[in-house]
Design brief:
Helices cover about 40% and strands about 20% of the residues. It has helices spanning about 25-40, 55-65, 80-95, 110-130, 150-160, 180-190, 220-235, 250-265; strands spanning about 15-20, 45, 70-75, 100-105, 135-140, 165-170, 190-195, 200, 210, 240.
Length: about 270
């Protein structure tokens, strides 16, 4: 792969999400990180970050490839007890990882689980802050669906207003955000400086092609790029993670197409 496809990008942090390493051989992520280096990728988001058995080898290959772990991504159940949270935070420290992203929610009926989730997040937020780790919440499709002028994400934002806990917006799962009115968008962007950018089809044919390189699916990416630029006026640093959960041929060749799309669009 010649040249550095990222060299013209001025975005503060542009990263690529790596899949879960559970059950993988050391050689697998060694080769992946080598490709990251060749592509000029300096930051990765590890999905999921609880990797105690492979951390030494993983870190060695990160250093060799000059790649840093920008964020770790966990499910709610992986940090739903103090002991589980302690294990994840220990891993974060070993990875020198500055951000912990959580998706999912507490159990319970629909009318209480969001508030219960938010109250637990307040405690997690405090524990993370003690470790100099930023805690962010990654909502999914149902969280941003409006009902009578509100969405479930509003409960999270309200309950964590004092902490000013930030959220992650995903262009695929949160695509309805682009149709919100400007005041509601601003409320979200004030708490969002981290974006998962991906493209795809909600009813793909074949089903394996749900996710495709940026610009080749049905997601309103021009509107998302506009939101990212607005966020950049509100925050000192904005992070954009290229994420693609499935691929047709080679994941890195499709990643390059996504990078070329961003360059064409002039992402700042």
């Amino acid at each position: 792969m010649s040249g550095n496809p990222f060299s013209k990008l001025k975005q503060s942090v542009l990263a690529v999400q790596l899949i879960q390493f559970g059950g993988r051989q050391t050689s697998d992520f060694a080769a992946t990180l080598k490709l990251c280096k060749e592509a000029g990728i300096q930051h990765v988001e590890v999905n999921y970050c609880k990797l105690p058995k492979v951390i030494p080898e993983f870190l060695a290959h990160c250093r060799a490839s000059n790649v840093s772990v920008h964020a770790g991504h966990v499910r709610f159940e992986e940090i739903s007890t103090n002991s589980r949270l302690s294990l994840v935070l220990s891993t974060m420290n070993e990875l020198s990882c500055p951000m912990l992203i959580c998706s999912g929610m507490a159990t319970g009926t629909a009318d209480v689980r969001w508030r219960r989730t938010a109250r637990w997040f307040k405690g997690i937020f405090a524990r993370c802050r003690e470790q100099n780790v930023e805690f962010l919440y990654h909502p999914y499709k149902g969280c941003v669906s409006l009902h009578q002028g509100r969405c479930q994400l509003d409960d999270i934002l309200d309950e964590t207003a004092d902490e000013k806990m930030n959220i992650v917006l995903d262009s695929f799962w949160c695509n309805s955000v682009v149709w919100f009115d400007s005041d509601r968008q601003l409320r979200l962007l004030e708490r969002c400086r981290y974006f998962h950018l991906k493209d795809g089809f909600h009813r793909p044919k074949p089903p394996s092609r749900m996710f495709v390189p940026l610009g080749e699916g049905e997601i309103s990416l021009d509107m998302w790029l506009s939101l990212i630029r607005k966020s950049a006026t509100l925050h000192r640093q904005v992070s954009v993670v290229i994420e693609q959960d499935t691929y047709a041929t080679d994941p890195f060749s499709e990643l390059v197409r996504s990078m070329q799309y961003l360059l064409k669009k002039g992402l700042p």
